[in-house]
Design a protein that fits this description.
It contains three helices and no strands. The chain is mainly alpha-helical. The chain has one domain. The model has no long low-confidence stretch (mean pLDDT about 85).
Length: about 55
């Protein structure tokens, strides 16, 4: 299994604060697949992070 490090997080376009939030959400370190999913969901193109509901 690949160990997630700052370089991998950065390559996915995720900031340190966002990575901390991901760890809080999952209540553990994400694996590479989960990191990729958050990266896509939170990219500016998809922008689920800033989508308002209601």
């Amino acid at each position: 299994m690949i160990k997630i490090n700052k370089h991998i997080v950065s390559e996915h376009g995720i900031s340190e604060d966002e990575f901390k939030l991901i760890k809080e959400i999952l209540q553990r370190e994400p694996n590479l697949l989960e990191l990729g999913i958050f990266s896509v969901m939170w990219s500016e193109h998809c922008s689920y992070k800033s989508t308002k509901s209601g």
